[in-house]
Amino acid sequence: MQNLKPDDVFEIIDTLYQSQQARMTYGMSPAVLQDDLFSWGNHLLSSPGKMLKLAFYPVVNGAKFFKRMMSEAGPGEGKDQRFKSEDWKMLPWRLYAENFLFLEDWCHEATSGIPGLDDKVERAVAFQARQVLDAAAPMNFPATNPDIVKETINTGGMNWVKGFQNALEDMQRKASGKQPVGTEGFEVGKALAATPGKVVLRTRLMELIQYSPRTDVVCKEPVLIIPAWIMKYYILDLSPKNSLVKWLLEQGHTVFMISWKNPDAEDRDMGLDDYFRLGAMAAIDAVSSIVPNTKIHLTGYCLGGTLALITAAAMAGNGDDRLKTLTLLAAQGDFTEAGEITLFLREGQIKYLEKMMWAQGYLDSGQMAGAFKMLRSYELLWSKMVNDYLLGQRSKMIDLMVWNADATRMPYKMHSEYLEKLFLHNDFAEGRLTIEGKPVAPGNIKVPVFAVGTEKDHVVPWPSAYKIHLMVNGSVTFVLTNSGHNAGIVSEPGHRGRYYRIHERKPGDAYLNPAHWLASSELNQSKSWWSAWENWVAGYSSPGRVQPPSIMGTADGSYQPVCDAPGTYVFQK
């Protein structure tokens, strides 16, 4: 402190102020948002034709409004889930809904197609407008929501009493650090993450789980799964009925899974190099020792998929040929089309976010969850408030919702590097990324790749996941499945309403853009992509089956059971 210069003191004051401010805004910089609005306003003022179009919009589109009012279908032609009940067809509720939809259309017109406006700024302003509209929607207010009025009459106002009790209970649970109501019946290690196994390696950043075999013989090559470190690993080992791990074991595969530590302030200086060395490579070394003289089917989900890509590229560059295949589940390595999440990840936003992480040493799970909720504010925020606090009901908890509430933190250094080097500058896809001082490039990857995208992914839009075709040199089998980032991956055989498209690009085949790929892909109705992937993995495995590892760990004791699955890191709060 004695060596501090006056300029350092002023900088520390700014950092401390912005870090506290960022906690209240979920890392969104008010200055950046204001700059976006100012730029949008300036460009709009310089576009008299656009302003005239907005001014006369009600007149030009009035007939369309009255046609919708007279339609027998509900508001939004009966397709808008926000107005799904029959009561929305009646006056005055129909008028409230149609006026709101008309305002949404006008706001879309006002925030799009502004001559000369940067595309990122345009999308950021449209995002801000959507947040205001979602908050002001008629569904959110008792006087303009017929469902609330009806429930109040039917219950004699008891919905308000129950709603107040629900709100009070939620606040108490949040203040005490407890999980949401309904999670009590989903205990980790019993109802969730219950597949038997042993932790055979523990590092500062992860525990490696080796699962117990469920068949007498197995494929020779094991499967190693790297999950995202943004959430707990058991998204891939949920309930027994939809556990990907359990299902793979039943198909005759030897499965290993990384369970990431929930980092705290002491881990602030753990970066990408550490996640590579103490996470991915430590796990690969362990698997190679436990199942010797064979290659590995490396699999990564979300951020874990990005790490798997980087790891495969680094291994290829180092001449390490221990990988048999690479599977990417809702993952991306090229971030040029990373979707709405990039609204939070421009230069000014990242610097602002770094101030918050610098002060506390990590990105808190609540701050991260708040940002993701804004991407889908109606589904994840306002609809819950209406249902729980105004209707006085409780949504039924399911395993996926329990997992979603069990978030983790991320170290300051790693997250800063991830945001700047990958999201902001796209260093990996463009060949500038270095790991442990050595360059890594996706073009070095020549093993077969199986990649999965999901139709409604707000985190990894499927065209972004599809860019793997432009990054690697081997064959690429790409699957597009329905549903979103999480539910599309948890898509066990027998799950109703599931379907997927699949197409393989072999070495030497011409590149197909996403639109042409859709036209060329094979549609599989009422089926799970899990089966297609397992067939693909089995097809790239050695012929025949072998005895599973006779013990958990290695015979020489270099890797031996530390504790039972699901380990200890998964319980860290």
Describe this structure in words.
The chain has two domains: 6-153, no CATH class; 197-571, Alpha/Beta hydrolase fold, catalytic domain (Rossmann fold, 3-Layer(aba) Sandwich), CATH 3.40.50.1820. The model has no long low-confidence stretch (mean pLDDT 90). The protein has an eleven-stranded mixed sheet with strand order 14-13-12-11-6-5-3-4-2-1-15, with helices on both faces. A two-stranded antiparallel sheet has the order 7-8. The chain has a two-stranded antiparallel sheet with strand order 9-10. The two termini are 33 Å apart. Strand 11, helix 18 and strand 12 form a beta-alpha-beta unit. By secondary structure, it is an alpha/beta fold. It has helices at residues 6-24, 30-45, 48-55, 57-60, 62-70, 93-110, 119-136, 146-155, 158-176, 244-250, 272-290, 303-317, 347-360, 365-375, 377-390, 399-405, 412-424, 462-465, 514-520, 529-539, and strands at residues 197-202, 206-211, 223-226, 255-260, 296-301, 323-329, 362-363, 410-411, 434-435, 438-439, 449-454, 476-481, 500-505, 522-524, 563-564.
